[in-house]
Amino acid sequence: MRIISGKYKGRRINPPKNLPVRPTTDMCKEALFNVLNNYFNFTGLRVLDLFAGTGSISYEFASRGSEAITSVDGDMGCVNFIKKTAKEFDLDITPIKSDVFKFLEKNKGTYDVIFADPPYDMEQKDFEKIIELIFENNLLDDEGILIVEHSKYTKLDHMNHFSFEKSYGGSVFTFFEFEFDEEETESSEEE
């Protein structure tokens, strides 16, 4: 695994083999950040990385200048690895060991980018619950974007705030934004 762009471009990261993860491939990361380049100047972005695993996505944001990155994972091995790597590269990443659903219910922060990469075999209703909790608890900035990575067998384009999706092999990134809230569009048309 390597960092694909920014200050630490080309740096290799070697997570222990025993972590329960499925890291986002370099090809998918490159495609994702090509999309995000059209939305953001990364400097100073507040980023929430859910189901952070090895921290691969967090490192990409940090390498590009994002300064307030929170990485949440339920596995202590993953959290310790992110902590160690962030210290080694002097990255502003705060790893938190927590069940993601509990974290989303209790957290009061707002973020410019929220990235969620749950296990691909997680139930459809749980994917939907992640999206619902983020919007219900106002965790996403008004101009922010939520990205959920999932397999091609999970469908999220029916959810509120759906914007678009991009497929790369068996992986799909589905994007959500406030401006794509159909209810708001319908109510403003009625006025």
UniProtKB/TrEMBL annotation:
Segments for region (Disordered): 1-20
Keyword Methyltransferase belongs to the record: yes
Keywords: Methyltransferase, Transferase
Catalytic activity, EC: 2.1.1.171
GO MF terms, alphabetically ordered: 16S rRNA (guanine(966)-N(2))-methyltransferase activity
InterPro entries for this protein: DNA_methylase_N6_adenine_CS (IPR002052), RNA_MeTrfase_RsmD (IPR004398), SAM-dependent_MTases_sf (IPR029063)
Origin: domain of life: Bacteria
Pfam families per the UniProt record, alphabetical: Cons_hypoth95 (PF03602)
Official protein name in the record: 16S rRNA (Guanine(966)-N(2))-methyltransferase RsmD
